[in-house]
Amino acid sequence: MILNRFEKLRRLTSNDIGIDLGTANTLVYVRGTGIVINEPSVVAVNQKTGRVVAVGKTAKQMLGRTPAHIVAVRPIVDGVISDFEVTEEMITYLLNTAQQNNKKLFGPRVVVGVPSGITNVEIRAVRDATRNAGAGEVHIVEEPMAAAIGIRLPVKDPVGSMVIDIGGGTTDIAVISLGGVVRARNLRIAGDKLDDDIISYIRSEFKILIGEKTAENIKIAIGAVLAGEAPLEASVKGRDLVTGLPREVIITDSDIREAISQSIASLVEATREVLETTPPEVLSDIMNRGIYLAGGGALIKGLAELLEEEIKIPVHMAEDPLTSVARGTGIILEDLESFKEVLIQNEDELPYQK
Ligand code: ADP
Ligand code: MG
After folding, report:
1. CA gap 333, 269 in Å, rounded
2. Fewer CB within 10 Å: N-end or C-end of the chain?
3. Which atom of ligand 1 sits closest to the CA of residue 192?
4. Atom 19, ligand 1: which residue's CA is nearest?
5. Is 306 touching ligand 1 by the criterion CB < 6 Å?
6. Which ligand has the nearest atom to the CA of 216?
């Protein structure tokens, strides 16, 4: 690549950073280096002083175990910023950590991914938080667009692409063409909802109360949306709701399937609805090229096959689906000028609202 003098100077004097502010995981990409931070989206705050005491894994370990004045919070809940100040603290922490060894003269150019369907007020909050955290320039991209770019789909071409990004709190379903999101839906059924489904099911079927972390572990270990050849089993420890004492039970993949069936059906239905309103030319591109799955929630076994069966369109799993959005922000940073059209330029002109 031939860089003009101005571009060379800019690279010497400021860093470029991409942020995927997910409901479950926050990733930071530094141009020239790659992903440098990959941590749970949790911040621990000391309520007496108002200061952030820990971010990421350390903060997550504090969840449910903190003294009264330290609270562990998730700044992004259901794809929405739940606490502006905490989000700003989190972004400040991320920018400082990412630039630690490499502070430059000017604030970094930052590309931030936000869920599709986010309101313009929320986008402004992200912009302000990032700017207050020390960014020189802030660019906003919708997460499914960033995911599609991370998967290297031809988002700027006159051809339809479809991405389903299943995260922790939300699922983004988006149809993209000519640099824009043509159709999108954002729903609150994603990885965390499946964990809740498992908790409810085990409570009602086995009369045992289990925690969120346990539910997530079982989901990852034996969750499968289609029955396999051999049944999968896991033993689960929880509190017996009758005696109040600890008890252990064996559950199988078919229990998990039953527990999450409603949520999976809703995901399939939402995908179908998006396709139903997609313009015919774009739809035919998607039928030819297939649908791409991204996000950690998409890793549940058998999901691509099930969707393919239900929708009758090929479904592909993104390579390394947990990092698609972050890698997409990195690709945008490589050539911000040419990706201008895919960024949200002015939140007051958003075509749709939640
Ligand atoms: P977000 O973008 O909202 O931060 P992620 O894309 O990081 O979310 O995905 C987090 C979700 O992915 C969690 O709900 C987690 O339980 C789920 N997940 C991660 N790995 C797997 C797996 N192997 N099987 C099923 N779910 C998984
Ligand atoms: Mg995500």
Report:
1. 35
2. N
3. 14
4. 296
5. no
6. 1
Q: How far out from the chain centre does Cα 70 lie? A: 26
> Which ligand is closest to the CA of 147, given by its number?
2
In angstroms, what is the span from residue 154 Cα to ligand 2's centroid? Answer: 20
**Phi, psi angle pair for 50, to nearest 5°:** 75, 5
Helix (H) or strand (E) run with residue 172 in it: strand 171-177
Whole-model pTM: value is 0.92
Give the tokens for residue 77.
């809940």
Nearest to 116 by CA among 90, 79, 86: 79
296: DSSP letter: G
- Which amino acid type is present at position 220? I
- Residue 158 token pair: 């006159």
Q: Is 30 left (phi over 0), alpha (psi -120 to 50) or beta?
A: beta
Strand partners, 184: 174
Alpha-carbon dihedral 130, 136, 137, 141, rounded to 10 degrees = -40
Most ligand 1 atoms within 8 A of CB, residue of 219, 222, 256, 327 to mutate:
219
Q: What is the pLDDT of residues 280-291, one digit of tens each?
A: 999 999 999 999
Find residue 51's DSSP bridge partners. Answer: 46
Residue from 25, 163, 257, 292 to probe ligand 1 pocket by mutation (most atoms less than 8 Å from CB): 25
Whole-angstrom distance, CA of residue 276 vs CA of residue 270 = 10
pLDDT in tens, 4-36: 776 676 666 668 999 999 999 999 999 988 999
Q: Is 126 in the pocket of ligand 1 (CB under 6 A)?
A: no
Where helices occur in 207-252 by DSSP H, the ranges are 212-222
- The letter for the amino acid at 277 is T
Q: Please tell me whether residue 208 adopts helix, strand or coil conformation.
A: strand
Query: What are residue 23's phi and psi, to 5 degrees?
Result: -70, -30
